Protein 1
Amino acid sequence: MTGAGDWRFNRSLPDLDDLERVQIEEFQRFYYDLWRKGGGTYDVSWLGYQTVKTPNDLIVYQEILTQCRPELIVETGTRWGGSALFLASICDLLGSGRVVTVDVEKFENRPEHQRIEYIHGSSTDPAIFAAVKNYAEQSLSVMVILDSDHAEPHVSSELSMYASLVSVGQYLIVEDTNINGHPVRPEFGPGPWEAVERFLGLDGGFVRDSQRERFLVTASPGGFLFRQS
Ligand SMILES: C[S@@+](CC[C@H](N)C(=O)[O-])C[C@H]1O[C@@H](n2cnc3c(N)ncnc32)[C@H](O)[C@@H]1O
């Protein structure tokens, strides 16, 4: 990689000392509260389509796509389609990759793009999963992003199904691990963070990649999982 800075000086969220952690978590709560008031991550768009992403994380996604070049990107939770369009745009620039994205709701005016396939239904419906798996089986390398219903039982179900689609050397990204007090929305109850903890205890094939948290503000702390075996 060229011009990417000196990686020796990068420190990620897990590397912070106690005082730094307090400061960063304070900022994360401040930023997230802006979002809940209608600013923050809801006020992010890509080519005119709204995404529900922290801007830092979009750069991280670009880095992952550039380094790993997945042939297929599976996203659960499409919403307005801005993130699917972002991923497809990076695939355009790289000259490879396509996006299959699943949502239980059909939002109007999602972006049309030759690299995006929309699937309508619940991500954990066996018929929907079978349709996604069919795409995965036709692809040499698969990356998965879980960003639908954030309740722990649903994310755990998704992990038990979709993790198997992820190729060795690719990422499984679990979004919104920051809720339920990690450090935002302490009232949420068990969510993605707890599902990831449970999943990593069961599946030794994935490791957390904390380098993906080096911009310090992310919606996926501990949620960038790299498939190593
Ligand atoms: C946080 S939004 C997704 C944001 C999108 N990934 C982005 O980055 O812009 C969550 C979406 O999950 C969808 N959803 C909720 N439950 C679902 C389920 N069981 N299966 C699939 N999608 C679901 C919601 O309709 C909503 O559009």
Protein 2
Amino acid sequence: MRKETTMKFKTIFVLLCISILNACSQKSPHTYNSTLNLKQVMEWVIDPSADVVWDSVKYITTSSGTEEISPKTDADWESIRNSAATLIQAGNILMLDHLAKDNQQWHEFAKRLSTNAEVALKAAQNKDKDALFDAGGNIYNACKACHDKYANFDKPQN
Ligand code: HEC
């Protein structure tokens, strides 16, 4: 009786090992949802998130002096952090095969977006408005570098 039980467990153990081995040797299919084209990723994912970062710290100069706009509440800082996080991930999304225009410089520009957005994210976590302002400028340069090379805004886009 005891022996039988041990055998049973052994069999289960062996079967378990085989199924784990099978699972590991199978390559994951890597099928991505490609519903959004590049234009939609730009307009619906990247642009609104960048706007949150850019609008967060501003200096408005009028004849009566310079007014500073900066995040006030915890909720303000959190929303900036979330948008910066979206931009970090957007850099990764841009490297997906169906969006990337090539395997070299495109990837560098996409990484540059993520890296600068990471600085913005840290600035938001530290509630450091100066660092956030600078990171916003560097994010803008990352957008512009890629647009200068790959986007032709004069032509009708699909
Ligand atoms: C890795 C390259 C790359 C990066 C980085 C990038 N873009 Fe773009 N973007 C493009 C290309 C290419 C187009 C034109 C694509 C099209 O319209 O089909 C474009 C188009 C756009 C458009 C216009 C969409 C349209 O055609 O109407 C907006 C808005 C935009 N980008 C915003 C941004 C912002 C904001 C950033 C930075 C926060 C950014 N992009 C970063 C490559 C990039």
Protein 3
Amino acid sequence: MLRLYFSPGSCSQASHIALEEAGAVYEAERIDFAGQQQRSEEFLRFNPKGRVPALVTERGIITESPAILTYIGQRFAGTPVSLPQDPFEFARIQSFNAYLCSTVHVAHAHKRRGSRWADDPAVIEAMTLKVASNMSDCFELIETTMFTGPWVMGETYSIADPYLLTFTGWLEGDGVDPRRFPKVYAHSQRMAERLAVQKVLSTAG
Ligand SMILES: N[C@@H](CCC(=O)N[C@@H](CS)C(=O)NCC(=O)O)C(=O)O
């Protein structure tokens, strides 16, 4: 059976919602960040990266949200998160998710995880101060050039939707009012109506 290692409110939320949307049979195992469980020997045995999400499959572990989301989409064809056959449409999804993973997530991580990039407390503080403006710039770009509506890719729901929702959920904590981005904000309200989202948010925070 599939097993998802997650932490509430973290980027693992996207994979968690995707599993629910797919109607997958899976176990969800919470990793306690406050207790630094992601750095425990037991967890590092599964995932030497010490991060979530990590999806354990019958054939081994998968890490990195875009890879996990794509795996769920491919494995559960015929569900709301299944992938388009058309190469261009699939590339659009990959492009959007890669932007979230490689740019937006990194901008957000400078708030609490600055020690990944610097030791000097003044430098870490300076990076923290950039988080609101960087996240704001990223979401401006998403709102004006990437988001199609009503779902990220247009009329069809996809693995990009739970991924975007997760990042939208980080905005307030990063000092950015999500209402500044009306299309993205309306998307988060639309997502909140989905049963899969409600289930994950009520059980996993
Ligand atoms: N590129 C990875 C990033 C994974 C990642 O950084 N996860 C965070 C939670 S959002 C984490 O596990 N942080 C724990 C830590 O840094 O100790 C992905 O997209 O899955």
Protein 4
Amino acid sequence: MKYLDEFRDPVLARWLLDAIRRRVSRPRTIMEVCGGQTHSLLRHGLVEELAGSVELVHGPGCPVCVTPAEDIDLACRLAQRPQTMVASFGDMLRVPGNFGSLLEARMGGNVRLVYSPLEAVALAARQPQLEVVFFAVGFETTAPATALAALHAQERQVSNFSLLVSHVRVQPAMEQIAEAPGHSIEGFLAAGHVCTVAGFASYLPFVERYGMPVVVTGFEPVDLLWGILECVRQIESGQARVANCYGRSVRRDGNAQALDLVEQVYEICDRPWRGLGVIPRGGLRLRPEFAALDARQRFASCHVSVTSPAPAHPPTECAQECRAGEVLAGRLRPDACPAFGTRCTPEAPLGAPMVSAEGACAAYYRYRLAGTAGSSA
Ligand code: SF4
């Protein structure tokens, strides 16, 4: 705990806050890409502390939030297929698709919460009469674990296991935000856990192309404030570099073993993101040599519809009212959404950002409305 406590030190946090305030010549706008960082900034009261000096725009880095509704619909259809189980992480079960969530598809379907993709492979090995589909979502951080599950299933010939892959890549989404006309973002905080896998050097071409600083940061208050100070320093001096403020976890070239796993199993593809449309090179799909493990291909021949609803589920309201796309692109603060805190709450969410543990709407609800914010500074 001592080690982490150092990154929560209120004296150091106060010093960094003062340094940031002194350094800005006018209010600066910085996007933190990762939903985990959004939660930490709100939990520790840093968004308020920085008001007037730095506006923090919340980015699309919540993997559950950006999973397209159509993929959730397909997962629900698969869960209701005879002798088929869909397994995924807890957050994913509650996120609504167009016709309901996986949790709702449990009624008449087979849905299982698992803590790792390998657990889903083990389930399949134990129950050969069952088709077990793992709903593989997430950024570069989770892709190595699902790649390992694919290799494990292939090696052990677990032929009743497959993957419904909905992995996304964070950098193409940042490119789309950087290219959007009229945006006011002057620098990015990149997510430390993604860079732990991918390495900070992966951002060098981005910085060169867009002329904005990218600062890799962690998740504790001191990590975040240190990253913001570095970003502000660069902006104020007209520089644009990649800086690593999370050196205790991130290396220049990332985790070679994890990257190798991903490279073996996946290839880059265009991918629809919820609310953001199709992002070129924005996702991963299984390589052709893993086609036997691809649930999209395996069940296409079983006439599983990806467009029609499960009969028991009428279209949900979220498709009409939820403004998740604007929230995820940093164009709308969650508390500016008309449904926030009234028609949309964590107990009755209209959209994914209110469901996920990393969702920006859930963060605003928890730390602004429910009043659980604390200050570390
Ligand atoms: S507050 Fe609810 S309805 Fe509004 S954008 Fe967030 S999730 Fe969607």
